[in-house]
Design brief:
The structure holds two protein chains of two kinds.
Chain A: H1 3-51, E1 69-70, E2 77-82, H2 86-99
Chain B: E1 2-7, E2 11-17, E3 22-29, E4 32-35, H1 40-49, E5 55-57, E6 63-66, H2 68-76, E7 85-86, E8 89-90, H3 95-109, E9 117-123, H4 137-150, E10 153-159, H5 160-168, E11 176-181, E12 186-192, E13 195-202, H6 206-217, H7 221-230, H8 242-266, E14 279-284, H9 293-303, E15 310-315, H10 322-333
Parallel strand pairs in B: 1-9, 9-10, 11-14, 14-15
Antiparallel strand pairs in B: 1-2, 2-3, 4-6, 5-6, 7-8, 11-12, 12-13
Helix pairs in contact in B: 3-4, 5-10, 6-7, 6-8, 8-9
Classes of the chains: A mainly alpha, B alpha/beta.
Chain lengths: 100, 334
């Protein structure tokens, strides 16, 4: 093996070593990315799981009043006042509209 | 055509527009009293004695007297009338109460003029002074809604003090504070340009005064309530009548307690903006009808460090109907 051939062999080895090292670095970086990606997904899933709750509002069963037999006078005392509520309602409607 | 409905611990009030700029109210006292006859003869006698009163007969033969007649009958028998609601909501444990509230609501609201007629009713806010599993506003709202929907209404709930703001703050661009002093609780709403920004309640009001005065004097709650509503007393002033003297004292304590709770709940609250102008404070509800209420409340607001600038404390012109009026206004736009 002459000097040129030796140099070429050393250079080839060097280039191969460098490419191999870079590939290792790339793989390890890719590995850590996917690891962090996996942990991120797991965290989000965990958070999403926390938000899921069941509606425990008490169910309103049927309320029958048919078995109550009305006997006495009528319910309620009726009175009337002079009061035009339309301007108050219009003003409130405008404010609500402005708020969007 | 739309309607408003104040579903209160002490009164249920329906509001609707009459003709030519009028508003019609239908009030009913939210109370009942049960008499269970022991023999068929007693049953006949009781029914005869109840002539002219508002009552129903149950399947087990008992008579359920309703409204103010229930309170009168309870007083007559040195007893206390029952309430289908307690501290602003229907009790989720009391089956009878729910049935009787449903009956009263159906009778007061009546059938909708047409299917889907709008009706806005009020519900209380979550209390700041009590953690109670029995206090379930959601369940209460669902019960009332179900009953009203059975009557053909498209029912929608708003907060009680929010309704009071709609009724009393029109001339202030719907900006200010409103306190609805019902029998069971005090509901509070701070409003800015028609938008409620803070709502809460406290769990002591007129019924608490009655209960405490009853314990102090050895009378029943219904007797105290009757004396309080008919008698002459001024808050925090002495009185020759021992029941009214106790009532006047407990009123003073109630106002002191409530204004302290207001200050504690609102001081430094993140939802409150910096108001540039002093705010009107509107008060309404049966509890505010006592002599000297507004003056005493105003004084205690200052003493106990109310955190917002106050322009004036204003008493609603019709304190028993103001919330129902606010619900009616809301029904026109919501």
């Amino acid at each position: 093996m002459n000097t040129d051939q030796t140099l070429l062999a050393v250079l080839s080895f060097g280039v191969g070593y460098a490419i191999g090292s870079l590939d290792n670095i790339r793989r390890s970086l890719k590995g850590s990315d996917s690891a962090s990606f996996v942990s991120e997904v797991a965290r989000e899933q965990k958070q999403a799981k926390k938000k899921i709750s069941i509606d425990e509002a008490k169910y309103v069963t049927d309320i029958s009043t048919d078995d109550l037999e009305s006997k006495g006078g009528k319910i309620g005392v009726v009175s009337e006042t002079n009061d035009d509520i339309s301007s108050a309602a219009n003003k409130l409607a405008q404010l609500k509209k402005m708020k969007g | 055509m739309a309607k408003g409905l104040d579903v209160g611990t002490s009164f249920i009030v329906l509001s609707s527009e009459g003709g030519d700029g009028t508003v019609e109210y239908k009030d009913f006292r939210d109370a009942f009293y049960v008499i269970k006859p022991t023999t068929p003869i007693a049953s006949k006698m009781i029914e005869k004695g109840l002539a002219g009163k508002v009552f129903v007969k149950d399947t087990d033969g008992s008579y359920i007297i309703l409204g103010k007649d229930a309170i009168e009958k309870a007083v007559e028998r040195n007893d206390s009338a029952k309430r289908p609601m307690y501290r602003g909501v229907v009790s989720s444990k009391e089956k009878d109460a729910r049935r009787i509230l449903s009956y009263i609501l159906k009778e007061v609201a009546g059938k909708a003029a047409k299917k889907g007629e709008k009706l806005v009713f009020c519900v209380p806010a979550q209390p700041v002074d009590q953690e109670d599993d029995d206090f379930d506003v959601g369940y209460h709202e669902d019960v009332v809604k179900k009953v009203l929907e059975e009557c053909g209404y498209e029912a929608r709930a708003i907060n009680e003090a929010e309704a009071l703001c709609y009724s009393e703050l029109a001339n202030d661009d719907y900006t200010g504070v409103a306190l609805s002093w019902g029998a069971g609780m005090v509901n509070v709403c701070v409003m800015l340009n028609g938008e409620p920004i803070l709502k809460f309640s406290t769990t002591k009001s007129g019924d608490w005064v009655d209960r405490m005065a009853a314990v102090a004097t050895g009378e029943t709650d219904s007797v105290v309530q009757a004396e309080k509503e008919q008698g002459d007393f001024t808050i925090a002033k002495p009185n020759d009548n021992q029941v009214l003297a106790a009532v006047a004292t407990y009123y003073d304590r109630l106002i002191d307690y409530t204004t302290k709770q207001l200050a504690a709940a609102m001081d430094g609250h993140k939802a409150l903006p910096k108001f540039k102008d002093p705010l009107p404070v509107a008060v309404a509800g049966g509890t505010t009808k006592a002599k000297g209420f507004v003056k005493h409340f105003e004084k205690k607001l200052v003493e106990n460090g109310f955190p917002l600038p106050v322009k004036e404390v204003r008493h609603a012109s019709d304190p028993l109907h103001a919330v129902a009026r606010g619900c009616l206004i809301a029904s026109q736009i919501l």
